Amino acid sequence: MALGGNAILTDNPSAQAQQAALKSTAESLVDLVKTAKEPVQLIVTHGNGPQVGNLLLQQIDGSSAKNPAMPLDTVGAMTQGEIGFWLADALNNAFAQAGVNKDVTAIVTRTLVDATDPAFKQPTKPIGPFYTANEMHEMVAQHADWTFVEDAGRGYRRVVPSPKPISIVEAPAVSALNSTDQVIIAAGGGGIPVVTQDGRLTGVEAVIDKDFSAAKLAELADADELIILTAVKYVAVNFNQPNEQALGQVSVNQMETYLAEGQFPAGSMKPKVEAAISFVKQTGRPAVITSLDNVKGYLLNGDATIINQ
């Protein structure tokens, strides 16, 4: 299950507010475990785009010769740790309150990428806060090597390289823990990006899209199903237009046609659809896209966008 940013960050970026958001998220996940008709083995991934961008700004603002800012891969590891800690606590507490005997483990996870991936020369992954046009120009003046894009009509955000995952380094450990019926939190923020150089793993400055990493981890962990949670109950074509159409049961071929038509915006629904398609094609198993507050509706009635072969 891949949690979207709305499951973690509200308008208030404080630790207390994010922990409060995760408390509600954890209660929904526990509800899923209790509602399911069969026992659930749950692996949870999550995004970190806002958190990694905010922490990177803090690193830069506080940087000095004696206390230099950390690189982007390390900042990604920091946010993976902080969100994993918050979510593990929230899930432990929610399970205890619901009388469900489940242990929770968060794993700091590395994601292998290709050092020659074209994404390193074409940054696309939005991180950090939104800026107005004037604020964006001020940031460019301070950081000439940064790239900004307009993000879904909500303002401008910095974008960084987002290579596609080849593998998840800790996937065997995730599978082993999952076999003990623990809830696993892994590949947070897409995982810490690493490449192989001279036979050794080394971190690279990038942020991997969490939906693609979730699909890859689900594939490697032999998951029965991939569920990508976002802000809407259904994926829709002709979104926000008079002829908008919500998608329920849909085939990979049809979704690929919609992708080719440009139905899904980059940085928003497009990577979710692409990740879902990848999982279905690699495994022959279904991928679901829906909202966090509709998880019970999906389990009880199949209300969601469900992609099959």
Quick structural gist:
The chain has 309 residues and is of the alpha/beta class. 39% of the residues lie in helices and 22% in strands.
Structure explained in plain terms:
The protein has 309 residues and is an alpha/beta fold. The chain has one domain (2-50, 70-113, 163-307): Carbamate kinase (3-Layer(aba) Sandwich). 39% of the residues lie in helices and 22% in strands. It contains 9 helices and 17 strands. It has helices spanning 15-35, 49-61, 72-98, 133-142, 171-178, 210-220, 252-260, 269-283, 295-301, and strands at residues 2-3, 43-46, 104-106, 110-113, 125-131, 147-150, 156-160, 165-168, 183-185, 192-197, 200-203, 226-230, 236-237, 245-246, 249-251, 287-291, 305-308. The longest helix is centred in the first third of the chain and has 27 residues, at 72-98.
Number of strands: 17
User: What is CATH's topology name?
Assistant: Carbamate kinase
- The assigned structural class equals alpha/beta
Coarse shape: globular
Strand content: 15-25%
Number of helices: 9
What is the residue-averaged pLDDT? Answer: 92
First-last Cα distance:
19 Å
Second CATH tier, the architecture: 3-Layer(aba) Sandwich
Largest sheet, strands/sense/barrel: 4 strands, parallel
Uncertain segments are: none
Radius of gyration: 19 Å
Spatial strand sequence of the major β-sheet = 1-2-9-3
Name the CATH superfamily assignment.
Acetylglutamate kinase-like
Element pattern in H and E: EHEHHEEEHEEEHEEEHEEEEHHEHE
Helix content: 25-40%
Organism: Weissella halotolerans DSM 20190
InterPro entries: AceGlu_kinase-like_sf, Asp/Glu/Uridylate_kinase, Carb_kinase
Catalytic activity: hydrogencarbonate + NH4(+) + ATP = carbamoyl phosphate + ADP + H2O + H(+)
Protein name: Carbamate kinase
